[in-house]
Write a structure and sequence with these properties.
The protein is of the alpha/beta class and about 280 residues long. Helices cover about 50% and strands about 15% of the residues. Strands 1-2-3-4-5-6-7-8 form an eight-stranded parallel β-barrel, surrounded by ten helices.
């Protein structure tokens, strides 16, 4: 099943997919073991920084091999692609899905660039995600510049994107105070657009808000910061006052913490519709 079809299914049924970034073999293994344990599908995401670190060909080969090994239904997605060029490289490499992030440009420019990517991705039968509104990135100040329903409707109609990341009160990185998602606004956006709606910056958002967001139309929930954090904090604690130099003995402890995190997040998502 293509990711487009899976997201459409989620949209119809009021469900969501977890989309998790990975950074190395250990975090990839942790994510997929968690998905396997819960018998859930998952989206594996790679940022441009991770692609620079791993290399595009190595990254996609790792992801494909790991999905097969763990026997998990999953898709590989470019997270926050900054240009048509990087999108093209990822599509050539075999990515199932790409995100073009022109959200910091004008509405007109965002539409134009996203249209280019949609046309390009059609040749690869790939899913396309774009972003509309201001979802603060790491180091940027959080603001209240939310995506508006009329703009979302126009953007999706003019670009033909399959998925749309929207600004409803989330941000990338950790929060200084508990975020409050604009759920009524989300409902308004969901009503006027057929695109699968995406929530970026889920790390630190309370579970009840995540579940409410799914019920109101979010189909894809991005997770990155918590994955990095739990892996590194566990690894640092393991290495503290520890003379072990065999990474094959210390890394699995950190990987196990990622497994637990992913299981917990998948449980939160799976409970929607069951209560």
């Amino acid at each position: 099943m293509t990711l487009q079809n899976k997201l459409s299914e989620c949209n119809r049924e009021g469900k969501a997919l977890l989309a998790t970034n990975f950074y190395n073999f250990e975090t990839l293994s942790g994510v997929l073991q968690g998905a396997k344990n819960k018998n859930q599908s998952i989206i594996l995401q790679l940022s441009e920084s991770s692609l620079h670190y791993l290399g595009i060909e190595v990254a996609i080969a790792m992801a494909r091999a790991a999905l097969k090994l763990h026997d998990v239904e999953g898709w590989v997605h470019l997270d926050h692609g900054s240009s048509v060029e990087i999108v093209h490289k990822c599509l050539d490499a075999g990515f199932d899905s790409v995100m073009i992030d022109a959200s910091e440009k004008s509405f007109t420019e965002n539409v134009k660039i996203s249209q280019q990517v949609v046309r390009l991705a059609e040749r690869y039968h790939a899913n396309v995600e774009a972003e509309l509104g201001y979802v603060a990135k790491l180091g940027q100040q959080q603001t209240h510049l939310y995506t508006q329903p009329d703009e979302a409707q126009k953007f999706v109609h003019e670009t033909g994107v399959n998925a749309l990341a929207i600004a409803i009160g989330s941000a990338h990185g950790f929060y200084k105070e508990t975020p409050q998602l604009q759920l009524e606004l989300l409902s308004g956006i969901h009503t006027v657009t057929p695109a699968a709606l995406v929530l970026h910056g889920s790390s630190g958002i309370p579970n009840d808000q995540l579940q409410a967001a799914i019920r109101r139309g979010i189909c894809k929930i991005n997770l990155a910061t918590e994955t990095k954090n739990i892996f590194m904090k566990t690894l640092q604690a393991t290495l503290r006052d520890n003379d072990e130099i065999d990474l094959r003995k210390v890394f699995p402890v950190a990987t196990a913490s990622v497994v637990k995190l992913i299981e917990e997040k998948l449980d939160v998502i799976a409970r929607v519709g069951k209560s």
